[in-house]
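Open question from group meeting: does this chain pack into something compact, or does most of it stay loose? Before anyone orders reagents, we agreed to write out a predicted structure and look at it together. Recording both the input and the output here so the notebook holds the full record.
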Amino acid sequence: MSEMEPREAAALRKHVGAGGYRPVHPGVYVTHGEWTRLTPRRRHVVKALAAMPRLGARLVASHETAAALHRCPGLRGWPPRVHVTDPARIRAQATAHVVKHAQTLDPLDTWLVSGVPVTSPTRTAADLALSQQHAETVVVLDDLLRRDLVAVADVEALIRARPRARSRVAALSALAFASPLADSPGESLARVVLARIGAPKPVLQHRFHSDGSFDPRVDFWFAEHGVVLEFDGAARFTRSRHVGPRTPEQVAVDERLREDAIRAHPDVAGFVRCVWSDLREPARLRAVLASAGVPCRR
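Structure tokens returned:
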């Protein structure tokens, strides 16, 4: 990422027009190759790092931008504009590149991440719970709780400190639903969809103990019905902590052997899987569960 002097503007425009550089903030550019290699979250982080030094010392990256800097997952993608909190403002303001939120900030609410001021994970969690939809909030809260970056009581205190917030009840509901046991954004969303379709409340990350050395752990366990539900996202087969030095073929074989071992456990009467498309169409997840004998309330 580089900043150009005014005298270089003409040459730069030629490169931008030819696709050599991409503007990420007025006066700040990255090469096209650098940009294409970045994940969506990291692209938003680059925008934040470019914008923050130009916005004034009192402004603090917040909301979705703070979530990106804290390495949280984004369920619906990342916003095109950088979000900041300006404690000196009395009302919010949105420009072409920045959204400024008008809220007070306690000194403890601010961390320094990658050299820029950012709302703390606790403050970020509260801000998002009060501004996002239920599923998006749960995905972020689950992630922060799993990484032990927030405590439920601390987030709740910040939410309750805003008694005039219209979404306070919904924010507290999402916080009560959140769990540190969800191992991925897909599992978090699956929990939300399971609740919406009236499925029985599953046990999360249940481990089946046996006499042998292999004690598999599953995503969702419906103990009353003896049914295992596994969420199959791409991360299960591609993330290094799951894959390690194994080849894709070996990963697939190992997963099949794992499933066979779970199915063979005396407590297991059924084993089903769901994928992202099942979560986008809840009726499909209801059908998956019904096929295994797990009823859902209407």
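Observations to bring back to the group:
The longest strand covers residues 217-222.
Residues 1-5, 7-12 have pLDDT under 50 and may be disordered.
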